[in-house]
């Protein structure tokens, strides 16, 4: 059984197919048809709902894509849909602002925009344009155009009216705390299918060892596509998001440790603090809805050759703490990938945490993502350059790429052509030629092999031409 709040009411679900996305639960079982299905892939935002969750005793509201959120993920949270916002006979200030600013035409996308704006209004004190654009980046509109929607995002702050959610915040926190302290670990079962939520890393390890074929699910932003688009039926899902040890972040003197179940939204600020280039990379990883659920560990374990984070983490010499039962081992991330979508993980072994040494200066890491769209798109090539200079000579060169081979990997020939050499155009030209020896990219619908090869070389040239930012000023760049 899983327990959660729907609006302000306690809800229980039992004997339910754990493969069911929240979207289908709302539309097919609760007749809540305001939430729309547009893509079933987390791309369009029409299905956006808001989840409320306790974070250090405070209530945090976040927008998520209900089409790729398994129903089990509602455990211990508050679910809010577009139908829940109406305040008696009055529209919610967000809804009223969209009406006043003519922010809806066909209306199909409107519920998703409403929920993204509701989450934004509960997260930001005022209408700062950059944050508004970030919050709406995962919502697509085909007919209205975005200007009136952005106008509504600004105007919704004009209303001083409170809603039932702000008025009942204390009671909601108490109810969520009660759900958190429920003695029994949450689970769902139907016939041979199950969803489980172990609370400790040892219990997670035990369940993996005892259940052949079990699949770990964290944010589900990739795995659940097997269900929604591939029509797969996964027999056993084991959720990592309830494991306290895997949700922790430890900022130590020499190393940053991030639990594998920490979402990108939760680690973005800290990563960007030490390596400013990661801020825009994570922004371009996916929409706010995706980043609120996608985890750092999941992006690595997925083993996609075009995953955004592995090239940057390889360039930073990150390590992975792997666990199987009570046994753990530490491996270098660059050695973790063994082939296309394959890794060093043994049966019942999983990533527990990611360790990133803090030895690199913040201005030394540069990351460039090349994709067909600026926002919400998969990389054709992603290059990460961790280069250190002393007295005009290259003393450290860790260069990694995604999209250039069947696994993310380092450019060894290119690095050797740089090490110990003066930082000048002649050295860069030699390193660009050496880079052509490091990878044999393929041609696909995102880019040709020759394009990838040339772009990778040009990114090294860009790294050379791009000046370093002042030490006190974070670097904000605009990637192609």
Structural notes for this entry:
There is one protein chain. The chain contains 18 helices and 20 strands. The protein is an alpha+beta fold and 480 residues long. The strands form five sheets. The protein has a five-stranded mixed β-sheet. Helix 10 packs antiparallel against helix 11. The radius of gyration is 23 Å and the shape is globular. The chain starts with a strand and ends in a 15-residue tail after the last helix. Residues 470-480 have low confidence and may be disordered.
**Rg, Å, rounded:** 23 Å
Say how many strands there are.
20
Distance between the termini: 47 Å
Indicate the percent of residues in helices: 25-40%
Contiguous runs where pLDDT drops below 50 for at least 5 residues: 470-480
Shape type: globular
In spatial order, strands of the major sheet run: 2-1-5-3-4
Structure class: alpha+beta
Strand content: 15-25%
Q: Strand count, sense and closure of the main sheet?
A: 5 strands, mixed
Average predicted confidence as pLDDT:
92
Number of helices: 18
Strand and helix layout:
Blueprint: E1 2-6, E2 9-13, H1 22-29, E3 48-55, E4 58-65, E5 78-80, H2 93-100, H3 110-121, H4 129-135, H5 147-155, H6 164-167, H7 169-180, E6 187-190, E7 193-196, H8 201-210, E8 215-217, H9 225-228, E9 236-239, E10 249-251, E11 255-259, H10 264-274, H11 277-285, H12 288-291, H13 296-301, H14 309-315, E12 319-324, E13 327-332, H15 333-336, E14 337-339, E15 342-343, E16 350-357, E17 365-370, E18 381-390, E19 393-402, E20 409-410, H16 412-418, H17 425-435, H18 449-465
Parallel strand pairs: 1-5, 7-9, 8-9
Antiparallel strand pairs: 1-2, 3-4, 3-5, 6-7, 10-11, 11-16, 12-13, 12-16, 14-15, 17-18, 18-19, 19-20
